[in-house]
Amino acid sequence: MASLNGKTIIVTGAANGIGRAEAELLARSGANVVFTDLDEANGTAAAEAFGEQAVFIRHDVSSAADWQRVIATTIERFGRLDGLVNNAGIYRPGALEDTTEENFDTQVAINQKGTFFGMQYAAAEMKKSGGGSIVNTSSICGIRGFRGCIAYNGTKWAIRGLTKTAAAELGKYGIRVNAVLPGFVDTNILSANSDEMNQQAAKDSVLNRLGRPEDIASLVLYLISDDSAFVTGADLLADGGYTL
């Protein structure tokens, strides 16, 4: 694996679950890592485990002002920005006829607009560093029409479009943009589903299990590192074969 020594990477939603696994793996691989989240207690504890190599910043990804502050703090602390993992997201079930405007707008603001802001503000700094890598988090809900979560599905389809468009626009600056599409991963987000649904999801995977946060983190490490230097605009599934 290509070294991440000297590189600085922001990971959003890094206090728990997939984001924490991603941030911790990137730090163990040598990167300076900025953990961001709204969960200050868990985010601070996660970052402090890596000493001067990491920092936690409280961060509302739906806020442009917060993004500007996070980027500025990152540059002040580490002097450069080489990577961004747009992991923060929210899942609120709701069918077409039941989804309120507030539910819809909240998921769009965090999942979709948060990803947009992250790419927009990070790209400006990555240009100064001579390039970089952005990894966005879509989902298998971004390639299928799962019933009962229309707003969430819409945001995850949108993230794939944002990813491909940004990849096309930023390639000339040496900035790669890719998306990971996790399947059912064993994190707190699955608590919104019934136990029966999650058990069935594990059975429907050809590997006969739910994903683990570390499964997604390993894929993100590859995409952030120079080992994926010729990969951009890609959708990388990590679903245990669920969508086969």
UniProtKB/TrEMBL annotation:
Keywords: Oxidoreductase. SUPFAM superfamilies: NAD(P)-binding Rossmann-fold domains. It comes from the Bacteria. Signal peptide: none annotated. The keyword Phosphoprotein does not apply. GO terms for molecular function: oxidoreductase activity. It holds the Pfam family adh_short_C2. Belongs to the short-chain dehydrogenases/reductases (SDR) family. This is 3-alpha-hydroxysteroid dehydrogenase.
